[in-house]
Specification:
The protein is an alpha+beta fold and about 80 residues long. Helices cover about 30% and strands about 35% of the residues. The two termini are about 15 Å apart.
């Protein structure tokens, strides 16, 4: 994991909490890498939309038995 990487574990939280928690971390970081974990159905789409609006780019996304891991970067 890169030095400037933050992991946001939003598993177990229902919408809109994953978006709010991830958004707060994105606002707190000027740049870097954020990994967001969520298991709430609509969260991946909503987190992705919020991240894009904040200038973060989705690098990868994977789904493991309902738990989604999204990686975002901002230079």
């Amino acid at each position: 994991m890169a030095e400037n990487t933050k992991i946001v574990d939003a598993r177990g939280l229902s919408c809109p909490q994953p978006v709010l928690v991830a958004g707060d971390e994105m606002d707190a970081m000027a740049s870097g890498r954020i990994e967001v974990l969520t298991d709430c159905g609509a969260s991946p789409e909503n987190v992705g939309r919020a991240a894009k609006a904040k200038g973060w780019r989705l690098v990868s996304s994977s789904d493991d038995k309902g738990a989604v891991r999204m990686v975002f970067e901002k230079p």
